[in-house]
Amino acid sequence: MLRISPKDVLTFSDKNDTVLNVANETNSAVVYKIQTTSPDKFRVRPRCGVLQPGESLDSSILIKATCTLQQDFSKDKFRVISLQITPCEAKGDTAALYKNLTVDNPNIKEHRLRSAPACAAEPTECMLNKQKSMESPCMGNAINDGNDTEGSQDSGEHHGKRNKPQRKTEKLQYFTITLIVFLSMAFAFMFWKQSQFNDKIQTQIEEALKNSMASNTDEQN
Questions:
Q1: Predicted TM-score of the model (pTM)
Q2: Least C-beta-crowded within 10 Å: which of 36, 47, 68, 188?
Q3: Which of 49, 52, 56, 44 minimizes the C-alpha distance to 32?
Q4: Are 69 and 118 in contact (CB under 8 A)?
């Protein structure tokens, strides 16, 4: 029904884009739609349309700015689904036609493609790029092969973060023990001073009583 070019693999350039050509080789109008398993990663313009007999159209497929080419494309696939329509349908409401483009429709034809970075034909270079890649928000799986050093750094940072609460707890315990010792010494000192004060008062009272008794004795004599 449709001639799809490229046929099997969408290869993305260094500018993070590629072109998919869709051509109608039938004698009737065809409505089509381009779908992807990673809509958060790719932007397709236009992604659907109506092709008259013999007509072709280029769809531009861009990788969004949050993504890079140096990553695993094995799970990023595309599908072109199409359906022959009558001339009246081609001139009618195209939105309704797009709604009929579902895999449940027995008249639907589909063509599947996979995606690949520009270095797909150079396995060694591609593997090096994958090893150097960083995980982006739209990657399905991060590729960490060859990043042992980076992983060790992450592990060290994580270990340091994990030990921070422990160090804070130890400092708090040390401070608490020091405070308890200081308060104990302060209370002991206060008790000792109070004992000395009480002894001094007791001695003064006894001397006063002795002096009073002596004075009374002298007066009686």
A1: 0.52
A2: 188
A3: 49
A4: yes
Beta-carbon contacts of 81 under 8 Å, excluding residues fewer than 6 positions away, are 32, 33, 35, 101, 103, 108, 109, 110, 111
**Cα–Cα distance, 207 to 218 (Å, whole number):** 17
Range of the domain at 8: 2-132
Q: Please check whether residue 138 lies inside any domain of the structure.
A: no
CATH number at residue 49: 2.60.40.10
- What does the pLDDT look like over 148-174, one tens digit per residue? 444 444 444 444 544 566 777 888 888
Same domain, 22 and 49: yes
Tokens 């070019």 correspond to what residue? 5
Q: Is residue 47 part of a domain?
A: yes
